[in-house]
Write a structure and sequence with these properties.
Layout (H helix, E strand, L loop, with lengths): L2 H25 L6 H4 L1 H5 L16 H8 L2 H8 L1 H33 L3 H4 L13 H4 L13 H34 L11 E5 L10 H12 L4 E8 L2 H27 L4 E3 L9 E3 H26 L1 E9 L2 H8 L11 E4 L15 H32 L2 H7 L4 H4 L2 H21 L2 H10 L5 H32 L1 H6 L4 H8 L4 H21 L1 H13 L4 H8 L6 H18 L6 H22 L12 H25 L8 H24 L3 H4 L9 H6 L22 H10 L1
Length: about 725
């Protein structure tokens, strides 16, 4: 990439960000857009502009974000969101502290050497193309065997020590934040009085599954056992319930049309309402609702009597017993009576609870294999795209575009954005598939599935995007050299690692300027909402569904941040200027997402920071990769003291082990000293029990069966989220 193209890319992205920020300032003040820019506050019954300033200052939202406290975030968006901001601030601190030493030290050292000037062909350049202005400020300009390389070796130690310090401090803070939230006496949390039991053996003759579970736990916990809820096979009844809810929405829509026009709406009864007999919509959907209610009630009785599964949620009268039970071994055989903490009611993946112990293990390893295959085969198209979308290679593959590409303006735009946009498009295709694979492992809760999908996406991003793009471009350029000397592949790969630094500089800039600009302005959700409201929505419920924002999407957001983290780590010493981009990315991310968390996004679950140990592990994985990259690159520079990095690599492994041993158990289980805190109000155990009853098993008539009145606020909340 030419220096001019880089400046055009950076300048264009900055202009787009400023325009989007000004659009946000203007659009967010218009009353008709309130539900798009303040949905979190609306759902909590707050005034949209509560605590805000309606001045003409376009930067007022920045002051509000900076002055908000961590407790404000916890109150409005939950502990998980607060933990995510700890992650952003920790990484911001790592890169800021690293930049304070590396930029004033390494840039002059690089700029005053002349390795590239003396080299006939700058094979060690940090960019694929003419970019000498940046190359002269990078490690590529350092002569081999030079004593200046000591500064770069010391820089690796500095970055590593700063990371250890910041991660240790963050882990302690998140652990305290989690404990404080769980010890809160303000609210009764149903999951703190329950455990999830899987792999239940077959009951003795003459006993139902529920009777067997009750007798088993009543014998172990005679004074504190309350009752159990046996999981049932609900696929058929869920379908009936979904159809019933759909008919109710269509009836409400038909009644709204009738009220607005005084004309009774009609519809056809055939496929997609396009064929079949034309009928009165209100009468037709009323009839279908009555039929569905009858089917639902009949199926409820069948499910409760005949479709009990080998899993249950067991309830206790106090939190300490539930916490103790979740950490205890209840059976000598590990594949029977498997007990864990119960997730929130809205988190349970009911269809996974019946999957047996060894089946879950087999599924897990099979999914790991499928993910490995996916990474391998996905690397092929990404490597091809990364190689072919450089302008020179694209002209070779498609000669007919050469006249167009010779136009200066088009050439600059293609060089600036084409490879980065192609990469972003490829990455956007993956998350749903990884989430499907994670749920297929037999994971019992939504938050756990998101953590698993996030991990897969992270390793996919690092292996395919960071390593794949870097090495693919290098291998493409050096194919002839490899054909002549096949045994030189290690040298070629080690030398090629810095060559894509400028590609990633542009990639990071595109992500924080354009990506966060779109995030702040919410242009796309705003357009979609107004189109739906004008042409599709007829009822208040439909309008609410149209503007409901969803959550922060940790399954994709955290791995995307981790990719930027990995890129910045690995090039922080080779091309220190990338630290500036890393600081801007995580600084802007903290600021803009702070605003979105307080005003826009609504959490779909609460795991009380259980994502943090996984975030911590992946930061260390990125640091470990950085240390390996620097060990290899210093070796390419023929610096014999590169071996001094070997102890640092082992220190990283030891640090990760110590952190896991010290902190992880407190995230895996609820500590008894946390669970023993008394609540201000005595819990209504019947309401705790009802919170876990699925929608499809809740009754429509008061005395039909034992689950009357089971619709809880947790389920209502989940229903809104699903909508």
């Amino acid at each position: 990439m030419e220096f001019e193209s880089f400046l055009v890319s950076l300048g264009t992205s900055a202009v787009i960000f400023v325009v989007l920020m000004l659009l946000f300032t203007w659009l967010s003040r218009r009353p008709g857009n309130v539900s798009v820019y303040y949905p979190n506050r609306i759902l909590k019954g707050m005034d949209p502009w509560e605590g805000s300033s309606l001045t003409r200052n376009p930067f007022a939202w920045i002051r509000e974000a900076f002055t908000s406290t961590e407790q404000d975030v916890v109150k409005l968006s939950g502990v998980d969101t607060a933990v995510y901001f700890v992650f952003l601030s920790t990484v911001l601190g790592i890169f800021a502290l690293s930049a304070l030493l590396l930029l004033p030290t390494l840039l002059p050292i690089s700029a005053t050497d002349n390795s590239l000037k003396n080299s006939r062909s700058a094979t060690d350049t940090t960019s694929n193309g003419t970019f000498s202005q940046i190359d002269n400020l990078s490690m590529a300009n350092i002569t081999k065997k030079s004593s200046r390389l000591w500064a770069f070796l010391g820089a690796v130690y500095w970055v590593s020590l700063v990371t250890y310090f910041m991660l240790w401090k963050a882990y302690k803070h998140v652990a305290a934040l989690r404990a404080e939230a769980l010890m809160s006496s303000e609210e009764v949390l149903p999951e703190q009085y329950a455990i999830l039991v899987r792999d239940i053996p077959s009951p003795p003759n003459g006993e139902t599954q529920k009777e067997f579970v009750d007798s088993y736990f009543r014998e172990i916990y005679p004074e504190t056992f309350y009752r159990s809820l046996v999981v049932t096979e609900n696929s058929k009844i869920n379908k009936i319930w979904e159809n019933l809810e759909g008919y109710k929405k269509k009836l409400a829509r038909a009644e709204a049309v009738f009220a607005a026009t005084s004309n009774r709406p009609t519809n056809k009864t055939g496929l997609l309402g396009l064929v079949g007999e034309r009928v009165d919509s209100i009468d037709y959907y009323t009839k279908l609702i009555n039929e569905s209610v009858a089917k639902l009630e009949a199926e409820q009785r069948t499910v409760l009597a005949e479709k009990q599964q080998t899993a249950a949620v067991v309830f206790f009268t106090d939190r300490v017993t539930a916490a103790l039970a979740a950490q205890s071994l209840h059976c000598q055989m590990v594949d029977k009576w498997t007990v864990t903490e119960a997730p929130e009611p809205r988190q349970l993946i009911w269809e996974n609870l019946k999957i047996k112990f060894f089946s879950r293990i087999v599924r897990q390893y099979l999914i790991y294999f499928l993910v490995a295959i996916t990474i391998l085969f996905y690397m092929i198209p990404i490597a091809f795209v990364s190689a072919i979308t450089t302008l020179g290679n694209l002209q070779k593959a498609l000669p007919f575009i050469k006249p167009i590409a010779e136009i200066a303006f088009i050439r600059t735009i293609l060089q600036s954005y084409l490879p980065q946009i192609a990469l972003i498009v490829f990455l956007a295709m993956l998350p749903k598939f990884l989430m499907f694979l994670s749920k297929s492992e037999g994971i019992p809760s939504q938050s756990h599935a998101i953590r698993a999908a996030s991990g897969k996406y992270f390793y996919f991003s690092v292996l395919n995007v960071f390593i794949g793009v870097t090495l693919a471009g290098s291998l493409f350029d050096n194919l002839k050299a490899l054909e002549k000397k096949p045994n030189s592949i290690i040298t070629v790969l080690a030398t090629s690692l810095p060559k894509n630094a400028t590609f990633f500089l542009t990639y990071v800039a595109l992500k924080f300027f354009v990506g966060y600009g779109l995030e702040l302005s919410r242009i796309i959700p705003l357009i979609i909402f107004h189109l739906k409201k004008k042409y599709l929505c007829k009822t208040e419920a439909e309008v609410k569904e149209a503007w409901y924002p969803g959550d922060l999407s940790y399954a994709t957001r955290v791995p995307s941040d981790m990719l930027i983290l990995t890129i910045t780590f690995c090039y922080s010493v080779i091309a220190p200027l990338i630290l500036v981009f890393g600081v801007i990315y995580f600084g802007l991310g903290w600021l803009i997402l702070r605003n979105q968390a307080l005003k826009v996004y609504v959490p779909s679950y609460e795991s009380y920071g259980r994502m943090w140990p996984h975030i911590h592990t992946r930061i260390l994985a990125a640091l470990f990769l950085f240390q390996l990259v620097m060990f290899g690159y210093l070796g390419v520079k023929l610096f014999v003291w590169a071996t001094l990095l070997v102890p640092l690599i082992f220190i990283s492994l030891i640090f990760g082990y110590v952190c896991r041993q010290k902190f992880y158990k407190g995230f895996e289980h609820t500590a008894l000293e946390v669970a023993c805190r008394e609540l201000k109000q005595r819990p209504d155990l019947e309401e705790v029990f009802k919170a876990y009853i699925p929608h499809s098993l809740s009754t429509h008539k008061g005395d039909d069966h034992q689950f009357k009145g089971a619709m809880s606020r947790y389920q209502d909340y989940a229903a809104i989220s699903a909508a």
